[in-house]
Amino acid sequence: MVLPERLRLAVAAAIGAAVLGYAAVRAGGGHDDGGRPAATPLDTLAQARAKGEIRVGYANEAPFAYMDSRSNQVTGESVEIARVVLRRLGIREVHAVLTEFGSLIPGLNAGRFDIIAAGMYVTPDRCKQVAFSDPTYGVGAAFLVPSRNPRNLHSYEDLARDRDARLGIVVGAIEGDYAAAVGVPADRMVIFPDAVSALAGVQVGRADAYAATALTVNHLLGKLPPDGGLERARPFTDPVIDGKPVRGYGAYAFRKEDRTLVDAFNAELKRFIGTPEHRRLVAPFGFTDEELPRGMTAARLCAGP
């Protein structure tokens, strides 16, 4: 049957309106054709469970999240813990999205990925932009020194008191500020272009200690043979700057509106951190019991000092 032109156009318009209305309901916007509020779209956790996959952003920084050249896989403390937690939430596949560190939060909020898995420190300023899980580690400062620590250096203050001791610093690193704050003069700071160069500098005697985070020192030592001639200074006292010991706490970051995902992830994370399984998982990346978060929470860190 051939419809009159006017009727055919009317039918086509009605079908088009119906299709648009259905799309709006599926997208969660507007109202359905009965005047009722439109259906709510699946939240990020429900979407990830339905697909069996989720995207995480990382910044290629060992030992937190980096591309392993041998396996050609993204790995690291933050990525491997995320895989365990997400599997427990029913999400089997984790797709890693490489991003510059400074672009991680903008990329998360723009929807390029759904979780930041980069060992990001929790700070009050960042808490204004994203929601954090509770931390997976806490890290203070450390010295890399020759075996048996011949100058007996166990703090920045020890090095400041020893007028012949020289401290290795990577160019632009905050450890130079720490040293200056406790009285280490600039002429006793030996500047290196990177961590590997600083390690070599201690090996050949250009510096008596290399200052870095404990995790950096652990990671470097993990690359040396047992007789590599270097060790981490133990015990070690973190510097006190502006009345506060220096210690950073790293966690996962999420969009603020993804509260369901944050809460579910955090619940599983609390069951996992500190267990024997967790300790075995992160040990290859240089993490020890000394880096456990010790009950620290995102709420406390976001509140600030």
UniProtKB/TrEMBL annotation:
User: What range does the record give for the signal peptide?
Assistant: none
Quote one Gene Ontology molecular function term.
Answer: ectoine binding
- Keyword terms: Signal
Q: What's one GO BP annotation on this UniProt entry? A: ectoine transmembrane transport
Please report the stretch or stretches of sequence annotated as the Solute-binding protein family 3/N-terminal domain.
53-289
The record's annotation in PANTHER family points to: ARGININE-BINDING EXTRACELLULAR PROTEIN ARTP (PTHR35936:SF17), MEMBRANE-BOUND LYTIC MUREIN TRANSGLYCOSYLASE F (PTHR35936)
Q: What is this protein called?
A: Ectoine/hydroxyectoine ABC transporter substrate-binding protein EhuB
